[in-house]
Amino acid sequence: MFLMIGITDGEQDLHYHWHLRCGQCGAVKDLVFFMTFTQLLLFFLPTVKWNRHYYARCTTCGTVYELDPQIGRRIEHGETVEILPEYLTRISTGSGDPYEPYGNAGRRTKQCPNCGATTDSTYDYCPHCGTKLN
Q1: Domain limits of the chain?
Q2: What is the pTM assigned to this prediction?
């Protein structure tokens, strides 16, 4: 019998936006919310997630805030939650590019030479196409 298992990190958009003043750039814009996690893969299918962290990113400057875990879980389960400034802790200053993953949240990344995907620097192989990363 052949069994394939693996552990990987992931990021999931929570499809939640909240209009709030960014503490970094001062813009009153939407914050977009996402979750990072570690997951167990069984035959390439995600089975269990743990180590969940919830974040919000300013759509203007890219600053990333960590969200209170209780509020993050409520958003993940589909609740509409009023986001108050005290629920957010700034963890990185935006790079100016709101589409750069994590802003400058201290995570290093690698880019796959084959498919161009951006991955965590700890990966040896691209999770998208399987190419060995430098």
Answers
A1: 5-100, 104-134
A2: 0.68
